[in-house]
Amino acid sequence: xxxxxxxxxxxxxxxxxxxxxxxxxxxxxxxxxxxxxxxxxxxxxxxxxxxxxxxxxxxxxxxxxxxxxxxxxxxxxxxxxxxxxxxxxxxxxxxxxxxxxxxxxxxxxxxxxxxxxxxxxxxxxxxxxxxxxxxxxxxxxxxxxxxxxxxxxxxxxxxxxxxxxxxxxxxxxxxxxxxxxxxxxxxxxxxxxxxxxxxxxxxxxxxxxxxxxxxxxxxxxxxxxxxxxxxxxxxxxxxxxxxxxxxxxxxxxxxxxxxxxxxxxxxxxxxxxxxxxxxxxxxxxxxxxxxxxxxxxxxxxxxxxxxxxxxxxxxxxxxxxxxxxxxxxxx
Length: 331
Description:
- By secondary structure, this protein is of the alpha+beta class.
- It has three domains: 3-33 and 68-136 and 313-327, Nucleotidyltransferase, domain 5 (2-Layer Sandwich), CATH 3.30.420.40; 145-180 and 249-307, ATPase, nucleotide binding domain (Nucleotidyltransferase, domain 5, 2-Layer Sandwich); 182-247, ATPase, substrate binding domain, subdomain 4 (Actin, Chain A, domain 4, Alpha-Beta Complex).
- It contains eleven helices and 18 strands.
- The chain has helices spanning 51-54, 78-92, 111-123, 134-141, 182-197, 203-210, 245-264, 271-277, 291-299, 312-322, 324-327; strands at residues 8-13, 17-21, 27-32, 35-40, 43-49, 64-67, 70-71, 74-75, 100-105, 128-133, 152-157, 162-168, 171-178, 199-200, 221-228, 234-240, 279-282, 303-305.
- Strand 11 and strand 12 (162-168) form a beta hairpin.
- The longest helix has 20 residues, at 245-264.
- The model has no long low-confidence stretch (mean pLDDT 91).
- Pfam families: MreB_Mbl.
């Protein structure tokens, strides 16, 4: 059977966003990793998935549960993950054929977690499941040739994890990761508002603030709706985003430290490659204003931001699936 007759589905199953494609050019699904379930009579009925489900957070009654099935890239709820994967596959598959499914996963997943994801996807209707580690899918999707002896550094900055990897000859030389990623920054902004402003904001509001703050520019003053923690009443308040720079910088310094750790653990032979080629930055967190400039200044090396950092992993999964035999030993 030729590759064009196969029913292949590539999935970037992220802590914050899930991206699904069934060819190199078409993105079938690019929404929040979130599902809303109605709990009645000891069963669960899907009300919404993706962004529609995310909009229900904090607005539901007791019979509706809104769940993010992943935490820091790992399965936090097996049954919900199975339901979520089933809904995704139903949206993505063509015709009645059971699809071959490729899923990009963080390196730090345990064998138990990998088996859980594999089983959840098979139970959701897949014919075959290929688990592909993030550094490889991110590198291939970003257009890096990882088959040569010339080392490539990839910084995959996502919502649940920031993974820094150095790859050559289709193999991993060294890597390091931190969980102080996009979600961590969101919760830090929530806590900053709680302790310094005495206001309560949602994680979604914090996520919006994060994308407005530039650590290398003068930031504006904005107005938001929040909860006054002194009397629990709604309040419209003014926020000077300039004072939130420190919250963002704390996490960026952690990312810098992880990059240095990965370089420290690498053999000296790769130093000339990094000096000449620098590193490639991808992932949703790469969209934060100023992160590329910050890393270049702090590390004194070139940082290349990919054109579509949110889509690189799903593209890489698809490409690897089409030539899986070449990568299988490394994956």
